[in-house]
Amino acid sequence: MEDLTLHRIESIPERLLDIDARDLHTLLPDPTLLYREGKEPRPLFVSVLLHGDEITGLLAVQRLLKKYRTHPLPRSLAIFFGNIKAAQFGVRRLDSQPDYNRVWPGGDQADCPEAKLMQKVWQIMAERGVFASVDIHNNSGRNPHYACINSLDLRFLNFARLFGRLVVYFRRPLGVQSMAFAQLCPAVTLECGRPGTELGIRHAFDFLDTCLHLTAIPNKPLSSHALDLFHTVAQVKIRPGIRFSFKSDEAELILREDLDRLNFVELPAGVGWGQTCSNALPLLAVDEEGNEVSERYFAVDRGRLVLTRKLMPSMLTLDERIIRQDCLGYLMERLESWSG
To answer: Is pTM, for the whole model, over 0.85?
Structure first.
């Protein structure tokens, strides 16, 4: 089992401001925590590249560091550069690695080197009195920009609202960065659409710059009209051993080629997700308590794989590697009433 070393720096290597994600390993050979002092001492913590192919976070923090290259930061800033080795190859993670966003404190992989490193990062930021946490991600399928939270505390809701009115509340999967940091401070995950788009980079940059100027995160009630708030009720995977495809007629499960167009669309019962040659459900849905709930949400009707109730999917992807490494996507229900 390979050891990992947390690289800690407090000065900005000149090449860092423009380096491509695939070349970052030539500058930062291991996961790296960059710390910069600002006028307000409690730091904003930002994690990027927890998935090596999700580069918007890197591009956004490069833009942020350039802006403050010649004058003081309004608030101290800590940036964690995560899976640098996967970024070298432009993939989510290497086959030999765990998912870097499943090994933070609170997950079920506490003994691996990656989990020990994330525990160290978490402890450093706890000792620093972290002000707020932002984890920046991309989607491989079609999705709007949205923020994710793991608590309905008013500070979390107000923090997420700064990114936009579309907010997702989830409690699973375990071991994610935002859930670990929610024990310390308001924490959000930003989902910024496809990797590397200018719209996503600018949206993430603007949010981070706003965070640096906050003196406090509001703890005030929000109107129910202020947010479109959804609750993730299940993670959906392909059952082990099932051959699936978006095109091949030889697969046991043939998913519709436009599946990711269903993301963030409130679907009625009966909508088809694909065709299967088996009467058994080829999908595995797990709720936030870890229970299998596949038959609650899916059925096979004369070879058609269909939804059994009104739902909104998110993060549905057409990338078969990501589906095998992680999941097909998630199911959500709208939270019609909430008080924080």
So the answer is: yes
